[in-house]
Design goal:
The chain is α/β, with parallel strands linked by helices. Among the domains are: about 5-120, Immunoglobulins (Immunoglobulin-like, Sandwich), CATH 2.60.40.10; about 250-300, Alpha-Beta Complex (Oligo-1,6-glucosidase, domain 2), CATH 3.90.400.10; about 505-585, Golgi alpha-mannosidase II (Immunoglobulin-like, Sandwich). Helix content is about 25%, strand content about 25%. The strands form seven sheets. An eight-stranded parallel barrel has the order 11-14-17-18-19-20-21-22. Strands 3, 4, 7, 8, 9 and 10 form a six-stranded antiparallel sheet that branches. Strands 23-24-25-30-27 form a five-stranded antiparallel sheet. A hairpin with a 2-residue loop joins strand 1 (about 15-20) and strand 2 (about 20-30). The longest helix is centred in the middle third of the chain and has 18 residues, at about 305-320.
């Protein structure tokens, strides 16, 4: 038994509450090493001198490149839980607790793993609606200024034309909030039920990540009435609205930074900024902390109580003023955790079902423990899809292992709401990674809708926008182009919306052929509570090769095809090159 590979961490993704009396318990072991595993659990304050323990078998739920993961749910658990594991590799049989491994379990309950108390306040409280979302990300400057139209012409607006202030707001391609509102029917037609807008508040640059005023809409994009109309139109169409909050840094014309430039250390806002020198000069490169060393983006000090209060008021203001449904929060990993805890509490106090997504490119366990964010931007997903669909540098088995690892890094409720995407406003278009091969892009989108997590479309992907550099991947929406794969996105949206297993189900590999480029997996949902009739199993098969393939699906269960270019002949399925198929297993 490879004991060094075995891992369990209480109060983490390896042990978390999924209800007031239900706990998911997970243990990691070396790949192909453990034959069976069970958890023994009991009341850690049992009045009996020897804690009365109950055994429950654990299921193998995932395998990555190095590890197997066993898991079970302890239902109707004691509020105070102690537990340990019994593990067998077919030869050795060991108990595993806080102290380590032994052939016999001791009677000292304090050396068992502990779940001290199932506190309802500490449970993951992810808005239930988030799990069922299909997202469309819009870069406002690039999308539309009218129905199916964008001018491509930018503008400049003086921030305060009645003063000597020379600060200006700029746009580049002419997109507006009103333009987005006039195309909600297009967005809804794709099956979208959530939009995320890049920043729309008053700022200097066209991208609006250098904020001037957090409580005003940028004049290049419109005004408060435009945003209210957009939100109302979206809500009437069943679409949630998320805005972009940029609280790590501001712009050079933000009132507090201008005061610091004028009065230096004597400014009452000096403490609002992180690591300012005594003499603050607006120079390049900056001698003060700034986002990515960009002098136009001085770093805010969210550890300062006054600055934190102001920024938190921004978050609550837009929910109260316009009824938005949540926030995507920029550069979230460079802001102190206490700020995010305060921010979440303030937002949830006025909107208990607000959805919070952090921009964190790496693994994000620290931010996803239920006290800060509900979700983060899942760049890992995009990297894996690039390697499998665009580059084909990953074999099907390797892709599956890495996807399983991705899913297992968080509690399942968190993985179900990770923001999955192929590209965003910060990276090259996925089609460019595919060297313009549209079939590879379309197959990657097929997978996007089938995987665990919220599928997110970056505007114009459905119109085959390409681009390596910023000016290209943020190019204007090609409204006049008839070339699109909108029908595919609409069909996949409808299937995902109709089948709960694709939105809320577990993920398990089913068919893998590295030689043929075949990858199949099952999304399974057991149903809500005792209502087993809600259960569902969906089989997804992908042919990520340039040739038609024939594979055996077996005959143990009847299969009803939902979607895909394939033909059945008994147990055999012929699937076209660069295609995917979806089946309901009965």
């Amino acid at each position: 038994m490879k004991k060094e590979a075995i891992l369990h961490v209480p109060l983490s993704a390896y042990a978390y509450a999924v209800g007031d009396k239900d706990i998911t318990v997970r243990i990691r072991c070396a790949k192909d090493d453990i034959k069976s595993c069970c958890v023994y659990f009991g009341d850690r304050v049992d009045t009996n001198p020897h804690v009365r323990m109950t055994a429950k078998n654990m299921d193998l739920v995932a395998t990555d490149d190095l590890y197997d993961y066993f898991e079970t749910i302890i239902s109707d658990a004691y509020p105070r839980l102690c537990y340990y594991f019994w593990i067998s590799d077919g030869t050795d049989r060991l108990y595993y607790n806080e102290r380590g491994f032994n052939t016999e379990i001791n009677e000292n309950r304090t050396e068992y793993f502990q779940f001290p108390y199932i506190r309802r306040e500490d449970r993951l409280r992810i808005p239930d609606w988030a799990t069922d979302r299909i997202m469309y990300q819009i870069f406002p400057d690039s999308f539309a200024d009218d129905k199916r139209h964008i001018s491509g012409a930018g503008k400049e607006i003086m921030i305060d034309p009645d003063s000597d202030d020379t600060a200006v707001s700029r746009s580049k391609l002419g997109g507006t909030i009103s333009g987005i509102e006039k195309n909600i029917d297009y967005i809804r037609g794709l099956g979208i039920n959530c939009i995320y807008l890049n920043p729309i508040f008053m700022a200097n640059s066209y991208h609006k990540y250098d904020t001037i005023d957090y409580k005003k809409i940028d004049g290049c994009f419109g005004d408060l009435k435009d945003l209210k109309k957009l939100v109302d139109t979206c809500h009437a169409a069943g679409i949630k609205v998320l805005l972009d909050g940029v609280f790590n840094h501001c712009g050079p014309d933000f009132f507090a930074f201008r005061d610091v430039l004028k009065f230096g250390k004597e400014s009452k806002y000096f403490g609002w900024f992180y690591d300012l020198p005594d003499q603050v000069e607006y120079s390049d490169p900056p001698k003060y902390a700034a986002f990515a060393y960009v002098k136009e983006m001085p770093k805010l000090n969210t550890g300062n109580p006054e600055a934190a209060d102001y920024l938190i008021s921004v978050g609550t203001y837009w929910i109260k003023e316009c009824g938005i449904d949540g926030w995507r929060l920029d550069v979230a990993n460079e802001i102190n955790h206490d700020f995010w805890r305060r921010y979440r509490n303030a937002i949830r106090a006025i909107r208990p079902d607000a959805f919070l997504i952090g921009e964190i490119w790496e693994d994000s366990q620290t931010w996803l423990e239920g006290d800060q964010f509900d979700s983060t931007m899942n760049y890992r997903f995009s990297y894996l899809c690039k390697d499998f669909f665009a580059d084909r540098s990953l074999k099907a088995s390797e892709f599956d292992e890495q996807i399983q690892k991705m899913i297992m890094r968080y509690p399942l409720p968190v993985s179900l709401v990770q923001m999955n995407f192929l590209d965003t406003h910060d990276v090259s278009r996925f089609l460019s990674y595919c060297n313009g091969d549209r079939k590879r892009l379309e197959l990657a989108y097929f997978y996007l809708f089938m995987c665990v997590g919220i599928p997110s479309i970056f505007y114009g992907d459905e119109k085959y926008i390409e681009g390596i550099e910023e000016a290209e991947y943020r190019s204007p929406m090609p409204w006049k182009s008839d070339e699109s794969f909108s029908e595919l996105i609409t069909a996949l949206s409808e299937i995902r919306t109709e089948h709960v297993a694709l939105r809320r189900g577990r993920y398990k590999k089913a068919i893998i052929s590295d030689r043929d480029g075949i990858y199949g997996f099952i999304r399974s949902f057991k149903g809500d509570g005792d209502n087993a009739c809600n259960g569902e199993n969906i089989l997804v098969v992908i042919n990520n090769s340039d040739f038609p393939r024939e594979i055996c699906l077996g005959k143990e269960r009847k299969k009803e095809k939902l979607y895909g270019s394939c033909r059945m002949n008994g147990e055999l399925m012929s699937i076209d090159a660069m295609n995917g198929c979806i089946f309901v297993l009965k």
